């Protein structure tokens, strides 16, 4: 990603991943994925009338996930566990008016999710229970004002295909956040929503729209968490049998979750 006006904010990402899937039987499948990301990026530190003081930072993220799929209870059951660790480097200022220094804490996200999907009334229904916990080194919490928290979500979903060209999906439930440092003024439990619709204009072009809202814990702008409301429009095209082109327009509204 290049930003001509602020060259110090150019972003360079290198990603490596390794995955393995093992099918033990027609009813049991297991998958594991390992992923590493090297991110060299920057941002504005101070905006002054005469000049902008920016910085660059080298971050590393390691992710591991495991998924178990079981056909039972009249449908498909999926258990997923994942861990993502974000190790943030020191900021190198440009111009170099300050010595390299750490600006943010390291953090890790633990995620556990259980899902059940089954046919229902010509469509497909689903039940999801998800738990996320953000972990921050104790020695860095007060210094960088980044604190631990966890979320718990339960939701019901239903998808229906009206024809070969029109399909919809709706998911609703409750999501709640908790943590020792979260302000008492924060609304802890909120509605969880996800809606999607897709229309195939031709055999090669499809249009989609969606809305979702939920808590976000990992690497937010705010020290605790954010509540995201996300709108999205998508155009999908298949240029050839092996080549496709997708365009997406996304708008996100963020509510900051404050600490005491």
- Count of alpha/pi helices: 1
Strand composition percent: over 45%
Instruction: Return the structural class.
Output: mainly beta
Residue stretches low in confidence (pLDDT < 50, at least 5 long) are none
Distance between the termini: 36 Å
Mean pLDDT: 91
Supply Rg.
22 Å
Tally the beta strands: 13
Query: What are the secondary-structure elements, in order, as H or E?
Result: EEEEEEEHEEEEEE
Main beta sheet: strand number and arrangement? 13 strands, antiparallel
Helical amount among residues, as a percent range? under 10%
Q: How would you describe the shape?
A: globular
Describe the protein's architecture and organization.
This protein is mostly beta strands and 260 residues long. The protein is 3% helix and 69% strand. Strands 1, 2, 3, 4, 5, 6, 7, 8, 9, 10, 11, 12 and 13 form a 13-stranded antiparallel beta sheet that branches. It starts with 11 loop residues before the first strand and ends with a strand.
Quick summary of this structure?
This protein is mainly beta. The protein has one helix at 138-144; strands spanning 12-25, 28-47, 52-72, 75-87, 91-94, 107-120, 123-135, 149-163, 166-178, 189-200, 205-216, 225-238, 244-257.
């Amino acid at each position: 990603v290049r930003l001509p006006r602020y060259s110090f904010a150019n972003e360079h990402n290198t990603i490596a991943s390794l995955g393995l899937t093992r099918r033990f039987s027609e009813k049991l499948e297991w998958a594991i994925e390992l992923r590493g990301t090297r991110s060299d990026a920057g941002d504005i530190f101070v905006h002054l009338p005469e000049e902008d003081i920016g910085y660059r930072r080298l971050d590393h993220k390691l992710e591991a996930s495991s998924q178990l799929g079981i056909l039972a209870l009249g449908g498909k059951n999926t258990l997923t566990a994942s861990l993502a660790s974000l190790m943030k480097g020191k900021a190198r200022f440009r111009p170099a008016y300050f010595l390299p220094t750490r600006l943010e804490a390291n953090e890790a996200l633990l995620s556990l999710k259980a899902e059940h999907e089954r046919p229902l009334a010509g469509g497909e229904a689903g039940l999801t229970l998800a738990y996320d916990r953000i972990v921050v080194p104790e020695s860095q919490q007060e210094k960088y004002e980044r604190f631990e928290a966890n979320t718990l979500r339960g939701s019901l979903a239903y998808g229906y295909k009206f024809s070969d060209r029109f399909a919809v999906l709706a998911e609703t439930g409750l999501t709640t956040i908790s943590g020792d440092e979260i302000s008492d003024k924060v609304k802890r439990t909120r509605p969880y929503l996800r809606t999607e619709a897709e229309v195939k204009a031709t055999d090669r072009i499809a249009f989609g729209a969606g809305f979702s809202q939920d808590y976000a814990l990992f690497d937010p702008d705010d020290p605790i968490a954010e509540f995201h409301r996300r709108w999205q429009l998508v155009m999908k095209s298949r240029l050839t049998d092996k080549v496709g082109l997708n365009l997406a327009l996304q708008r996100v509204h963020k509510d900051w979750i404050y600490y005491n």
